[in-house]
Design brief:
The complex is a heterodimer of chains A (242) and B (828). With 242 residues, chain A is of the alpha/beta class. Chain A has a single domain, classed as P-loop containing nucleotide triphosphate hydrolases (Rossmann fold, 3-Layer(aba) Sandwich). Chain A has 9 helices and 10 strands. Chain A has a 6-stranded mixed beta sheet. A 4-stranded antiparallel beta sheet of chain A has the order 2-1-4-5, with helices on one face. The termini of chain A are far apart. Chain B has 828 residues and is an alpha+beta fold. Chain B folds into 4 domains: 203 residues, no CATH class; 184 residues, no CATH class; 233 residues, no CATH class; 180 residues, no CATH class. In chain B, a hairpin with a 2-residue loop joins β13 and β14. Classes of the chains: A alpha/beta (242), B alpha+beta (828). At the A-B interface, α2, α3 and α4 of A face α1, α8 and α9 of B.
């Protein structure tokens, strides 16, 4: 019963709310402003792409949204929790329960097999029977035959599939992806992004993706542009029109 | 937590190069320290038991007053768990078929010897054998010379007083050979139970009752505490360490072993610190990812702490698995050298330093960089973060220095050692910092290019942090190894100088004044030169500045020299190995004054000009102290506490003459001829004692060599560990350079040059720091004189340059043998 009320409440709340977000980095002589006055609200289940050139601040923004870092100014509210108020450890716990990640460079642990890489977040979140769930997920991403291969024995596309399986393993409510196809060729990138979008839909998770792949961005519900640290949503009007 | 557990399993860890280095370093640390501790322990026991056997026990109680000690004393010793034994020593005439001879009798109880063994020969033609007990009642063992003097055969009877005893063996060597001038006549050994029946020992005869004790050091010490208040002045309690001849050698050997141990600890610490820092750096990505996946900082800390503990267990187990067989081998080796079996003595408490080293290495050197992993930002998964600031390293360094200090102190137990070693290290690091700064500012000007020299210099600059770290480690390792080599050479030279091949091994005593010239020519004709012949007058020091000497000297000081007659002499020239410490040696024509041995002078609190009164027979002689001189007691030449000038205080006193000389084993028969011609002159044979001392020196030398080899091996592994720490980077660079068209030869040359330069600088620094440490050590701990070791100073930098160049070449192998494409992918 309690759970029900929680869910209802949750459904009304945006998944991610950002207001007045500014991030600066101190250099030897002066300070560099990387993000400036970013405001953003992402609804539950939405898929959002953030597009921008290299050095525009998109990776920094992703790190701040995911709670990997804290902003210089402004607030980030992730699933109702204001992350700049949380301690590093509280943020880690939040990530373990609610957040999944997919990286450009896959970030698999080279010493662990595909299966073990997927099991790792399940174990960290204390989920029961991690073995079965990891196996199911790997089968779902088409690697059921390669459970015991280490990352080095897998191609780039396969490694990213393992990473996607890992990202969805703990059933996150929000998934952050940093250039998920950046290190892959077109065709492989295409199939990996298909997989990412499909799984996201199946699991009803919110997706926030940084990319410079316009086609991939186009498959998301909304696209933001970022330039010199300033975020804009050119298609907002169209979306409203839809 | 299967995956997480696997992430933390040693088996998986082992696949990671840096962990392998940490584990190997740890194992080496434990193995080296454990082996040294075990071996030092064993050696010490072997040495002490060797030296103990000079007493035939751990302690002797001499009753010089001719009376047995109260039976209660011996009973008390037995009750306290000590082994005891008894000897009675006296001189008497023995009668054989063809004559009689003055002999020195040693009557021993069944327990004799408590330490050491006796060498006998069943008859003249058979080989010598070693036994561990003296003659049975009814038997007598005699010196081979006596056999010839009395024309005896084995099995003949010999009369000692009223008792007839059967000569059953020749006595070749007794463990307590004795080095006293009282044992002048040929030795015979019989059973103590036969003494009463001889009727020789009666109230008032000159007899020495000697009691032997052996057992645990602590028990002996407790017993002595109990006994001491009851001892009379004529009782003398002797321990191994009181013997002037061996104590210095033992002490130095001990110090050297401790020094070696301390250096091993330092090397181990360096290895663990370097490898774990490298490991921590390599773990940053994993930690960032784990954080991203939701693991808290505390969770990461616990994860790595568990891992460290696991390494500790594996390192200790692996180290011991290496140490124990190694220890076994060393003891076997020692046993071979000594040509006698040695009992293994595995003292579990000797492993404590090894375990402590492992724990402290882990927690003071490995933990700090790993602890900082908690602070790795999760953001690192998205983008490389700025490196660690230098400030974070400062507390680590502080912890490391304190830990090193504590470890070495704990291990060596001597502040001088710790301070000289760490002083050398601090100096080294200071100079390194300076050189580093210089290097960076000089190398910055070098621009890249195609020539091997420039590439090498650019390489050094590009890896300046790694280069400096490697140089620091190499220099430190070289310093430690060089210190050990230098101290070892000094020690061995010193020992060899102490007992050269022609060390006098026989004394002639009791030469009548008018026989002196004849005796000298007897030996000169047979090609055996005698050392200086000294007159000797027996006398007691009785008064100090007119006051009875026992009152004048504090009662706490037990001074053996006051309890017995001293050998006084006169001489014109200061003996070569004596050194004047205060005052002036007698000028020509001087007749006043006496020169006093420095240690005795110190104990008596003598100053120049103090008046000493000697009682010689019924006469008294009083002379002022004219000089104080040091004496080489272990020179095996006649040495004197008190020396007068010719025509001085000893004029007209009854003197006999004494000298020493070296006689080869093959010329021993000359002694019989001499004894027949000069029956009143006593020959004291100490060749066996000298052989024993040389044995001990050889034993210690072997041990030192073995331990040195171990430490040098450890040093090599440390260097290898450090070099391979940057292996991956260098291989990647090499592959890139080849991809960009760099020729193999250029790559080989520049890499070897880069390493050679590194090795050269490290060598120069290391050897200079070593000289500094040796200077401090020699001045304080080893009492030697310092001099530069030019050969070492010049060769170490060259050797280290060469070694490192070869290391560099070896590292390049995969880069040269595999296509760059494959290598780059493999290194990805």
């Amino acid at each position: 019963m309690n759970q029900m009320t929680d869910l209802t409440k949750n459904n009304q709340r945006p998944m991610l709310r950002v207001s007045g977000l500014t991030h600066t980095v101190s250099l030897e002589t002066d300070t560099l402003t990387i993000l400036q006055g970013v405001n953003l609200e992402i609804k539950r289940g939405e898929s959002v792409a953030i597009v921008g050139r290299s050095g525009s601040g998109k990776t920094t923004l992703l790190g701040l949204l995911a709670g990997l870092d804290t902003p210089s100014q402004g607030t980030v509210e992730l699933d109702g929790a204001e992350i700049s108020r949380l301690s590093e450890d509280e943020r880690a716990k939040l990530r373990a329960r609610r957040v999944g990640f997919v990286f450009q460079s896959f970030q698999l642990l080279p010493a662990l097999s595909a299966l073990e890489n997927v099991m790792l977040p399940l174990e960290l979140a204390g989920i029961e029977a991690p073995h079965q769930r990891a196996r199911d997920l790997l089968e779902r991403v088409g690697l059921g035959e390669r459970l015991n291969h280490t990352p080095r024995q897998l191609s780039g596309g396969e490694q990213q599939r393992v990473a996607i399986a890992r990202a969805f393993a703990s059933e996150p409510s929000i998934l952050f992806a940093d250039e998920p196809t950046g290190n892959l060729d077109n065709r492989t990138g295409q199939s990996v992004s298909d997989l990412l979008m499909d799984l996201n839909r199946e699991q009803g998770a919110t997706l926030v993706m940084v990319t410079h792949d316009e086609r991939l961005a186009a498959r998301c519900n909304r696209t933001f542009h970022i330039e010199a640290g300033v975020l804009s949503e050119p298609d907002a009007a169209r979306e409203f029109a839809d | 937590m299967a995956a997480a557990k696997k992430l933390m399993s040693v088996r998986r860890d082992w696949r990671e190069r840096d962990v392998r280095v940490v584990l190997v370093a740890l194992m080496i640390a434990v193995a080296t320290v454990a082996t040294i501790a075990l071996f030092a322990n064993q050696l010490q026991r072997t040495l002490v038991s060797s030296a103990s056997s000079f007493l035939a026990a751990d302690r002797q109680l001499d009753a010089e007053n001719g009376k047995p000690v109260p039976p209660g004393w011996i009973e008390e010793a037995r009750n306290r768990g000590l082994q005891t034994g008894q000897m009675i020593k006296f001189s008497t005439m023995v009668f054989g078929e063809s004559g009689f001879q003055l002999v020195s009798v040693k009557a021993v109880s069944d327990e004799y010897p408590l330490r050491g063994d006796i060498e006998i020969q069943p008859n003249q033609d058979s080989s010598r054998t070693i036994v561990d007990a003296g003659p049975r009642p009814g038997e007598i063992w005699i010196n081979p010379r006596l056999l010839r003097l009395l024309e005896l055969q084995i099995g003949d009877t010999l009369e000692v007083g009223n008792l007839k005893l059967t000569v059953s063996n020749l006595l070749i060597r007794e463990p307590d050979g004795g080095f006293r001038l009282s044992s002048l006549a040929p030795r015979v050994m019989m059973h103590v139970d036969d003494v009463a029946a001889t009727g020789v020992v009666q109230e008032g005869s000159r007899v020495g009752f000697v009691y032997l004790f052996a057992g645990d050091d602590r028990l002996l010490e407790d017993y002595y505490q109990w006994l001491e208040p009851q001892l009379e002045p004529s009782h003398e309690w002797e321990g191994v360490r009181d013997g002037e001849t061996f104590s210095r050698s033992l002490e130095r050997a001990e110090r050297f072993l401790l020094l070696g141990g301390s250096l091993a600890v330092l090397l181990a610490a360096v290895a663990v610190a370097v490898a774990s820092r490298q490991y921590a750096l390599s773990q940053r990505d994993t930690v960032a990812l784990l954080k991203t996946l939701g693991l808290t900082g505390g969770g990461i800390g616990r994860l790595y702490l568990r891992r460290l503990a696991l390494w500790g267990v594996v390192g200790i187990a692996g180290g011991l698995a290496v140490a124990l067989p190694l220890f076994w081998m060393l003891v076997r080796m020692l046993s071979d050298v000594l040509e006698r079996p040695i009992d293994f003595y595995l003292d579990p408490s000797a492993l404590t330093p090894a375990l402590l080293t492992a724990l402290i290495s882990l927690f003071a050197f490995a933990y700090p960089p790993i602890r900082r992993l908690q602070n790795v930002p999760a953001m690192r998964v998205l983008r490389a973060q700025p490196g660690e600031s230098g400030r974070e390293v400062v507390p680590d360094l502080l912890i490391a220095v304190i830990a090193v200090f504590g470890l070495v102190w704990l291990y060596a137990g001597e502040l001088t050692l710790v301070v000289s070693l760490l002083g050398g290290l601090v100096l080294l690091l200071t100079v390194l910092a300076l050189i580093g700064w210089l290097m960076v500012s000089l190398l910055r000007r070098v621009r890249g290019g195609g020539n091997a020299w420039r590439l090498a210099l650019v390489g050094l600059y590009r890896h300046r942090q790694a280069s400096m770290a490697q140089m620091a480690v190499f220099a430190m390792t070289l310093m430690l190894a060089a210190t050990l080599v230098l101290v070892r050479s000094a020690l061995l030279e010193d020992w060899q100088a102490q007992l050269p091949e022609d060390t006098p091994n026989h004394f002639l005593i009791n030469i009548a004044p008018n026989d002196v010239d004849a005796v000298e020519s007897f030996w000169a004709e047979r090609g055996v030169p005698l050392d200086t012949v000294y007159p000797m007058v027996r006398g007691r020091l009785t008064e100090l500045n007119g006051q009875p000497v026992k009152e004048a000297v504090s009662k706490d000081e037990r001074i053996n020299a006051l309890n017995r007659e001293l050998n006084l002499t006169w001489m014109e020239q200061l003996p070569e190995d004596n050194r004047i410490q205060e005052g002036q040696w007698f000028a020509k024509g001087d007749t006043r004054g006496v020169s006093v041995e420095a240690e005795l002078a110190g104990k008596l609190g003598l100053k120049l000009g103090d008046k000493l009164t000697f009682t010689i027979g019924s006469e008294k002689v009083t002379e002022p102290v004219g000089s104080i001189r040091s004496v080489q007691w272990d020179s095996m030449k006649p040495n004197f506490y008190m020396a007068f000038p010719p025509d001085g205080g000893l004029t007209n006193m009854p003197a006999t003459w004494i000298t020493s000389f070296h006689l080869d084993e093959s010329s021993k028969l000359l002694l019989n001829e001499f004894s027949r011609q000069y029956p009143t002159v006593s020959v004291l044979e100490i060749d066996h004692i000298i052989e024993r001392i040389q044995d001990i020196v050889q034993q210690v030398t072997q041990a030192i060599e073995a331990i040195l080899a171990l430490i040098l091996a450890a040093a090599l592994v440390v260097m290898a560990a450090v070099v391979s720490a940057t292996l991956r980077d260098r291989q990647r660079e090499g592959a890139l350079l080849r991809t960009l068209g760099g020729q193999q030869l250029l790559l080989v040359r520049s890499t070897m040059l880069e390493f050679a330069l590194l090795g050269f600088f490290a060598g120069v620094l290391g050897v200079l720091a070593a000289e500094t440490a040796v200077y401090a050590l020699q001045a304080r701990a080893f009492e030697g004189e310092f001099r530069w070791h030019w050969q070492v100073v010049l060769s170490v930098p060259l050797i280290s340059a060469l070694l490192l160049a070869l290391f560099g070449r070896w590292q390049l192998r995969p880069v040269l043998s595999v296509s760059p494409m494959l290598l780059l992918r493999r290194l990805e």
